[in-house]
Design a protein that fits this description.
The protein has about 500 residues and is α/β, with parallel strands linked by helices. The protein folds into 2 domains: about 5-70 and about 120-310, TIM Barrel, CATH 3.20.20; about 395-505, Sandwich (Immunoglobulin-like). It is built from 16 helices and 19 strands. The chain has helices spanning about 35-40, 45-50, 55-60, 75, 85-90, 95-105, 115-120, 130-135, 175-185, 200, 215-220, 230-250, 270-285, 295-300, 340-355, 370-390, and strands at about 5, 20-25, 65-70, 140-150, 190-195, 250-255, 290-295, 305-310, 320-325, 355-360, 395, 400-405, 425-430, 435-440, 450-455, 465-470, 480, 485-490, 500-505. The strands form 4 sheets. Strands 3-4-5-6-7-8-9-10 form an 8-stranded parallel β-barrel. Helix 8 (about 130-135) packs across helix 16 (about 370-390) and helix 15 crosses helix 16. The longest helix is centred in the middle third of the chain and has 18 residues, at about 230-250. The N and C termini lie far apart (about 75 Å). The relative contact order is 0.12. Mean pLDDT is about 90; it is low at about 1-40.
Length: about 500
């Protein structure tokens, strides 16, 4: 049976899609560039031109966002063995525990493949409004879904593929519902894209049901391992990004690996540059301030916001950047432990002190509910921010990011080497006008003890301090300053649960 689908023509983007296509059992949709339009707008698809784009102030002010790894992979992964996000790949590798788990639970991969997992993804309890309320209560200033992961399943109503959440599985426009709910609660909307790796992700499936060309819209065209992607694949990659931009107008788009310059990365520089130019020009035409986050220093040398997966900078840097990490596993997995709110608050403070922002993931269950433990953790962050938000939102780095014995190792995937912060570890931020310094003590020193902040010692050239307060504490503090440091006596009770913020007022 064939069905005709009319494609949206992106007149306001520099990528055009053929007006009509048919999804059949033999073929996937076809897309093409409108080459005459690619150069239109202020930004050209060259690194030199793209370098003119500036990171928006709203991103520098927001500091904290939330996103969600959720989709068909959750159906198989939440009760299965490790490597959650790799379920659709590992289920086809005979030496993987996931292969054995899938065969036992669902059946032989020649007949019951990932395509059949998609049909089991119903999202029957998904509540976009409930999610958005939770995100807002957690203190997030921007939020949104993983729009498409490595599994190539689009979590929106797409005209480019039948493998989307409107045509398959939930039969709902997940991204569209979240966009409306998130904006309703005053947050910026983001969308993240991981499908640059889809070309590699399903390579093991070609010995099983992925070899059938009628499923190429999901598994990609069958090819030899490490074969370069086709132009059709890269056109699809770019077309899906531009479709989300046109339909849902995200304030930030974020990219997983797949854009690198290593052999196994897929998207060529030509297509990378077109993506940036398309988005920047769309934003310019619509008077929007937008950003693009990615993981590649060679691209960041020209444009975009540098992102560190489960890691961060180890020093104060002049450019704004992003950490993406998670409350636990990326996708929901019932056997995996969660972090603590205390731990995540400390990491958030450390990130902000170094000119960064944090994007925190939560993995909903397959039915669309957010696990209770994850909810409690997120609300714990929100309670801390209600007391101490002035030290986070709308701030800028101070002269130094901090002091104390504990340091993190810089770079992606470094958080597993983190050591717990102590009461001797202090991190700094300051107001935009520089008149207020916030000193955050990352563990409770003890009632009545004296905290010494050496970076605020009374030395030539140092700022003049006129007042010291502890956020959340109503009483006056006893403090003095000498050449050793600013010495502050702690009150008898904690003003909040985790890190503790001194508001230090300076004279002009």
């Amino acid at each position: 049976m064939k069905r005709t689908i009319r494609f949206i023509v992106f007149s306001s983007l520099s990528f055009a899609i053929l007006a009509t296509s048919r999804f059949t059992s033999e073929s996937a949709p076809t897309v093409c560039f409108a080459n005459e339009a690619v150069g239109g707008g202020r930004f050209k698809p060259t690194w030199k031109s793209l370098a003119k784009h500036e990171t928006p102030d709203w991103f520098r002010d927001a500091k904290f966002g939330i996103y969600t790894h959720w989709g068909p992979v959750t159906v198989g992964a939440e009760d299965g063995p490790g490597g959650v996000q790799w379920y659709g790949c590992n289920m086809y590798k005979p030496n993987s525990p996931t292969f054995k788990y899938h065969r036992k639970r669902f059946g032989d991969q020649h007949q019951v493949g990932y395509k059949d997992i998609v049909s089991l993804f119903k999202a029957e309890k998904f509540d976009a409004e409930g999610w958005a309320k939770l995100f807002a209560a957690s203190g997030a200033k921007f939020a949104g879904p993983v729009a498409i992961h490595h599994d190539n399943f689009a979590m929106w109503d797409s005209a480019l593929t039948e493998w989307d959440s409107m045509d398959k599985g939930p039969k709902r426009d997940i991204t569209g519902e979240l966009e409306k709910a998130i904006r309703k609660h005053g947050m910026k909307f983001i969308a993240t894209f991981h499908h640059g790796f889809s070309w590699r992700y399903f390579e093991p499936s070609y010995k099983y049901d992925g070899a059938d060309p009628k499923y190429a819209g999901l598994y990609c065209q069958a090819h030899e391992p490490d074969a370069p992607p086709t132009k059709e694949f890269m056109n699809q990659w770019l077309g899906k990004v531009n479709e989300v931009v046109k339909k849902y107008q995200p304030d930030l788009i974020w990219f997983d690996f797949g854009l690198g310059n290593e052999k196994r990365n897929c998207i060529t520089p030509e297509y990378q540059q077109r993506m940036f130019a398309d988005y920047y020009n769309w934003a310019a035409r619509n008077n929007r301030q937008v950003g693009v986050a990615h993981k590649h220093r060679h691209i960041h040398a020209h444009t975009g916001i540098l992102d560190f997966e489960r890691g961060r900078e180890d020093k104060l840097v002049p450019y704004p950047w992003l950490t993406d990490t998670s409350v636990g596993p990326w996708f929901c997995q019932k056997s995996s432990p969660y972090k603590s709110a205390d731990q995540l608050v400390d990491v958030l403070v450390d990130i902000v002190s170094k000119n960064g922002c944090m994007l925190l993931n939560v993995g909903p269950a397959a039915d669309g509910t957010i696990p209770l433990e994850a909810q409690q953790l997120m609300l714990g962050i929100g309670r801390w921010l209600k007391v101490n938000d002035k030290a986070i939102y709308n701030t800028r780095p101070w002269q130094t990011f901090g002091e104390g014995p504990t340091r993190n190792i810089g770079g992606g995937f470094s958080e597993r080497k983190d050591k717990p912060f102590t009461s001797e570890d202090i991190r700094f931020t300051c107001s935009k006008d520089g008149k207020t310094i916030y000193a955050v003590v990352l563990d409770w020193p003890g009632a009545g003890t004296t905290v010494t902040i050496q970076s605020l010692a009374d030395k030539p050239g140092a700022v003049d301090i006129t007042d010291v307060k502890l956020l959340g504490h109503n009483g006056k503090l006893s403090w003095k300053r000498n050449q050793v440091g600013l010495k502050i006596q702690m009150p008898s009770k904690k003003p909040c649960e985790y890190a503790f913020v001194f508001k230090i007022t300076c004279s002009e």
